[in-house]
Amino acid sequence: MKNVVFETDFKDLTLVKKGKVRDMYDLGDALLMVATDRMSAFDVIMPDPIPGKGKILTQISLFWFDVMKSLIPNHLISGDVADYPDSCKPYADILRGRSMLVKKAEPLPIECVVRGYISGSGWKSYRESGAICGIALPDGLKESDRLPEPIFTPSTKEEVGEHDINIDFEETVRRIGRPLAEKVRELSLEIYRKGVELAAEKGIIIADTKFEFGLIDGELILIDEVMTPDSSRFWPQSDYRPGGPQKSFDKQYLRDYLTSIGWNKQPPGPSLPEDVVKNTLGKYMEALTLLTGTDHEL
């Protein structure tokens, strides 16, 4: 496998943010967003990369940015290294396929989570209180059931190594103001519904996902990544059976492995066996191929 990137080290560029997966560089008028092959689970970065994963995430995001541009502008300037500034040219081979040149925006301090099915932390919350983020749900739901309507369940945006915290809508209002909170709720649900409809045509259920938004001169735009296997639960429609966990095209496979070995979900993460790395990559690649209808070379 070529071009495995765990850390970026572009000596001529200014690193401004190092995330769990993505590194951001300041290019003056724009930012360079690079998706590495780092893998995080339970908010901990694993010591082993998933080779080519950053390219898969980038190509899926580029696909969705194009699909959703009729609903909301986004931060993408270009995903083609030929369009990048000269300062990026020495790193073209590394950047190709796994990076985006993006506009500078002021990110909103919340994660905009939408759930169409009940799973993960939402299922845990429902079992404890019958609600998710203050939204009461019908009695008798089973794990992985489809919800009557998608719901907006935001969370905080914590630093690397910290767990995001689910918040209710009123806490969102306190953090960003009511007009903006209502707007991102409406847009999040609209983007999710459009994505769900398209993915269903490709045999994929998008059970839940999270979006990030930013502001440029007061205008709301879509930023970061969009409906990737890192930020969403992707389930194969053909295998969907409510009442328990589902087969998936996302990092749930890795989460299940980490749970099975009794890892305490605290850093450092455990080393990953070769077959777990290979199978995780295969699931991500399958999601990309199904969504875009084309094979991609890593």
Automatic annotation (TrEMBL):
GO molecular function annotation: ATP binding; phosphoribosylaminoimidazolesuccinocarboxamide synthase activity
Gene Ontology biological process terms from the UniProt entry: 'de novo' IMP biosynthetic process
Reactions listed under catalytic activity: 5-amino-1-(5-phospho-D-ribosyl)imidazole-4-carboxylate + L-aspartate + ATP = (2S)-2-[5-amino-1-(5-phospho-beta-D-ribosyl)imidazole-4-carboxamido]succinate + ADP + phosphate + 2 H(+)
GO cellular component: cytoplasm
Enzyme class, broadest EC rank: ligase
InterPro entries attached to this UniProt entry: SAICAR_synt/ADE2_N, SAICAR_synth, SAICAR_synthetase_CS
The keyword Nucleotide-binding appears for this protein: yes
SUPFAM superfamilies named in the record: SAICAR synthase-like
Record's keyword terms, sorted: ATP-binding, Ligase, Nucleotide-binding, Purine biosynthesis
Pathway(s) this gene product operates in, as recorded in its UniProt entry: Purine metabolism; IMP biosynthesis via de novo pathway; 5-amino-1-(5-phospho-D-ribosyl)imidazole-4-carboxamide from 5-amino-1-(5-phospho-D-ribosyl)imidazole-4-carboxylate: step 1/2
Residues annotated as domain SAICAR synthetase/ADE2 N-terminal: 16-267
EC number: 6.3.2.6
Top-level taxonomic group: Bacteria
HAMAP family: SAICAR_synth
Family of the protein in this entry: Belongs to the SAICAR synthetase family.
Name of the protein in its database record: Phosphoribosylaminoimidazole-succinocarboxamide synthase
Lineage: Bacteria, Pseudomonadati, Thermodesulfobacteriota, Desulfobacteria, Desulfobacterales
Gene that produces this protein: purC
